[in-house]
Amino acid sequence: MTTRHLTILTGASRGMGLAMAQQLLAAGHDLLCIARKPNEALAAQAMAAGRRCEQWPQDLARADTAAARLVTWLQGQAGADYASVTLINNAGLIPRIAPLGEIPAVELAESLRVDLEAPLLLTSAFLRATAGWQAARKVLNISSGLGRRAMASQAAYCAAKAGMDHFTRCVALEEAQRPNGARVCSLAPGVIDTDMQVQLRSADPARFADQGSFVGLKDKGLLSSPQDAAAMVLAYLARPDFGSNPVADIRD
């Protein structure tokens, strides 16, 4: 019986995504990482450990291209070689932090493509390409508490994460009806000390009423490190009951 595991991870070049990639490599997973730029340190880690780690430079604002490539790539893999295959939709971005009417349409469109369209298209591609595999199949969508709580000057990000949560609920219902259906979950990982938090703390308080709250999280030491957050997320992914709740929070 094979013990190999394959994980496809977006946003793997920095922050929690990079930490997850590093920890998955250390655990012996084969990786396909999709991000704007490859990470040289990750490539070096994989080479030193003799692990398989492909990195695709890909702008996820063009998710249709990434999804088509993923289908072709997965169809070229030997599914019988793997005990599990997992997609982690981790990549995300926040457009400029301001009331909706002050944000240019091009920025709103890009954020929705990366934060909602890309996970949806990649999930569709993953499920289609692995439908005949006997391996355990999982999809983990990295969501946010802001998908479940409204915040002024965060309309696009809140809407995208709410959409992610709800499409995950729909896919969970679909996959429950299929032989070897994938287990899926949209998981809020808590507050993490990443570039996104820097962006929120640096916003103009006149346009972002909650700016002080994010400053306070940092000042009070309430942010998880990317490494700690990655470990908690991967531990959740490994739980026997993963997918029993399609929308979850790491803090519950």
What layout of secondary structure does this protein have?
Elements lengths: L3 E7 L4 H12 L3 E6 L4 H10 L3 E5 L5 H13 L6 E8 L15 H25 L6 E7 L12 H21 L7 E6 L6 H7 L9 H9 L6 H12 L9 E3 L3
Helix pairs in contact: 1-2, 1-8, 3-4, 4-5
Characterization of this structure:
This protein has 252 residues and is an alpha/beta fold. It has helices spanning 15-26, 40-49, 63-75, 105-129, 155-175, 195-201, 211-219, 226-237, and strands spanning 4-10, 30-35, 53-57, 82-89, 136-142, 183-188, 247-249. It has a single domain (4-190, 226-249), classed as Rossmann fold, CATH 3.40.50. 43% of the residues lie in helices and 17% in strands. Strands 3-2-1-4-5-6-7 form a 7-stranded parallel sheet, with helices on both faces. Helix 4 (105-129) packs parallel to helix 5. The mean pLDDT is 95.
The string of secondary-structure elements, in order, is: EHEHEHEHEHEHHHE
Count the helices. How many?
A: 8
Question: Judging by the overall fold, what is the CATH architecture?
Answer: 3-Layer(aba) Sandwich
What is the strand tally? 7
Outline the biggest β-sheet: 7 strands, parallel
Number of domains: 1
Average per-residue pLDDT, rounded, comes to 95
CATH class, named: Alpha Beta
